[in-house]
Design a protein that fits this description.
With 401 residues, the protein is α/β, with parallel strands linked by helices. It has helices at 16-30, 76-85, 97-109, 121-129, 134-149, 161-170, 196-206, 227-240, 255-261, 280-286, 301-308, 337-349, 351-364, 370-400, and strands at residues 2-6, 34-40, 48-50, 55-58, 61-62, 69-70, 89-92, 113-116, 155-158, 177-179, 213-218, 244-249, 269-273, 289-292, 313-316, 331-334. The radius of gyration is 22 Å and the shape is elongated.
C-alpha cells in the first residue's frame, strides 16, 4: 500500500503528534508498505525533500504558539509531486494547514482519507481563554470538529474512549469512530537499549546524589500539564525527606513561572530543559518513578514511554491513562494531593513493590507496540478504501441509471 501521512509537526520537532507520526511511518514501512510524509518545514522559504522524496517539508511560518508553523493552504509545487505518488490512502494528523491541504488533494485525486484526532482542545481552549469568550471558544471547537464531520473524511481514529464520547455526545458525530490507542516504539525505551555513556553524562548534569529518589516528569512545560500541582506537592515531600528530587524534562511558556514557584526548594527541583529526541530514554532509565498530573491528554504517550522503560507511574485518575495503568500493578492513580503523596511515599519506602511494578510496567507496555498499532491502523485504511470504492461504484450506477 502507498500511504501519505499529512502532519503539521514532525521530528526533529518533539511532541506527542510528531512522535506518533514518525513511529507510525516506521512501523508501516516495517510491515512492507511505502510511506510518504508531508509536513511543515522549519524554514520559511524553502522546500526540503528527504529520504528520496519520502519526506516532503513545505515552507512554514511561525504562529507564535510554541514552535508550531503553518503553511499555505495549497502549495502547488507539492500538489504535483503528490499526484505522481499514486497514493492509496491519505492519513491526516492535523486540523490546520497541512490537514486542509490533505483533504483538498484527496478530493482532487479521488483518494480515500483517514483522520486522527490527537489534541484534546476542550482543555487547551480553557487555559487560553480562562473562561472568557466562551461563545467564541465553543464556535472554534465546532469548527475544528467540522473538519472530521466533513464528508471528505472517510474514517476517524481517536486514541481514547473519552475522545470518542466527546465526539458522539457533545459534537453529535454520526460517522464510525475507531478507538486505537497510539503505540510507541517500545524497544527504544528498553533498559538494555539505552545509551549507557549518554545516560551517565545526563545523570552527572542533573547534579543529584546516588541515594536521591528521582521523580520524573517529561513533557511540554505549559499550564495545561498541571506541573504546578507536582511542585506544590513536592514541597511537602521535601519537608519529610530531603532526598526527593523532581526532574522536569521539557520546555515551554510556563517555565519562568514554575521556576519562581519552586525557588524555595530549588535544590530539590531540577529543570533539565528540552531534550534531544534520542536522549529521552536516558531520563526514564535514570528515574525511580514517573509522574504526571495532566488531565489534558488524549492518551498520554509519556506514560507509555515510562512503562516501556520499566519505570513505575503515578498519574492523575483520568480516562487518558485508563488503557495504560493497572493500579496496584504497574503504577498508581490519584484524585487528590493526599493520594498523590501517599503513592509516592509507598513506592519510595518499598523497594520490593517498586521492583514488582517495574517488571509489570515493561511487560504491560507490549500492548502498545508500534507494530500492533500500525496493524490496527491498516485495518482502518483497508476498510476506508473498500467503503470508498463501494461508494464510487454506487454513485456511478445511480448516474448510469
Amino acid at each position: 500500500m502507498r500511504i501519505g501521512l499529512f502532519t503539521d509537526t514532525y521530528p526533529p520537532y518533539i511532541n506527542g503528534v510528531s512522535t506518533s507520526v514518525h513511529m507510525l511511518k516506521i512501523a508501516l514501512e516495517n510491515l512492507g508498505h511505502e510511506v510518504f510524509v508531508v509536513t511543515v518545514n522549519q524554514k520559511a522559504s524553502s522546500y526540503d525533500f528527504e529520504e528520496d522524496g519520502h519526506i516532503i517539508k513545505v515552507p512554514g511560518v511561525k504562529t507564535g504558539i510554541y514552535d508550531y508553523r503553518l503553511t499555505s493552504m495549497y502549495p502547488l509545487k507539492i500538489a504535483k509531486k503528490i499526484k505522481k505518488m499514486n497514493l492509496d490512502i491519505i492519513h491526516v494528523h492535523t486540523e490546520f494547514s497541512i490537514g486542509s491541504f490533505g483533504r483538498i488533494i484527496a478530493k482532487q485525486l479521488n483518494i480515500p482519507i483517514v483522520a486522527t484526532y490527537h489534541t484534546y482542545y476542550e482543555d487547551y481552549l480553557y487555559y487560553v481563554t480562562k473562561g472568557y469568550f466562551n461563545y467564541i471558544s465553543k464556535n472554534l471547537l465546532k469548527t475544528l470538529t467540522q473538519f472530521y464531520a466533513d464528508k471528505t473524511v472517510n474514517s476517524l481514529i481517536v486514541p481514547a474512549e473519552k475522545i470518542k464520547d466527546l465526539f458522539i455526545n457533545k459534537y453529535n458525530y454520526k460517522k464510525e469512530i475507531a478507538v486505537i490507542p497510539t503505540g510507541i516504539a517500545i524497544e527504544r525505551f528498553y533498559k538494555e537499549n539505552v545509551d549507557k555513556k549518554k545516560k551517565e553524562e545526563i545523570y552527572k548534569s542533573l547534579k543529584v546524589d546516588k541515594d536521591d529518589f528521582l521523580i520524573l516528569f517529561v513533557g511540554r512545560v505549559a499550564e495545561e500539564k498541571n506541573i504546578e500541582f507536582l511542585i506544590e506537592a513536592h514541597k511537602k515531600l521535601v519537608k519529610e525527606d530531603n532526598k526527593y528530587k523532581l526532574i522536569i524534562v521539557g520546555d515551554g511558556p510556563d517555565i519562568k513561572n514554575l521556576k519562581e514557584l519552586s525557588k524555595d526548594i530549588k535544590d530539590n527541583v531540577v529543570f533539565a530543559g528540552k531534550s534531544l529526541w534520542e536522549d529521552v530514554p536516558c531520563y526514564y532509565d535514570i528515574a525511580d518513578i514517573f509522574v504526571t498530573a495532566s488531565r489534558s491528554e488524549t492518551q498520554g504517550l509519556t506514560v507509555l514511554e515510562a512503562l516501556a522503560s520499566s519505570t513505575p507511574v503515578v498519574c492523575a485518575n483520568d480516562p487518558s491513562y485508563i488503557d495504560a495503568i493497572v493500579p496496584g500493578s504497574n503504577g498508581f492513580v490519584f484524585d487528590t494531593e493526599e493520594e498523590y503523596l501517599e503513592n509516592i511515599k509507598k513506592l519510595r519506602k518499598d523497594n520490593k513493590l517498586r521492583e514488582e511494578f517495574s517488571i509489570n510496567a515493561r511487560n504491560y507496555s507490549e500492548n502498545f507496540s508500534s507494530s500492533k498499532y500500525a496493524k490496527r491502523v491498516l485495518d482502518v485504511y483497508e476498510k476506508a478504501i473498500k467503503d470508498y470504492k463501494n461508494f464510487k461504484n454506487k454513485y456511478i450506477e445511480e448516474i448510469i441509471g
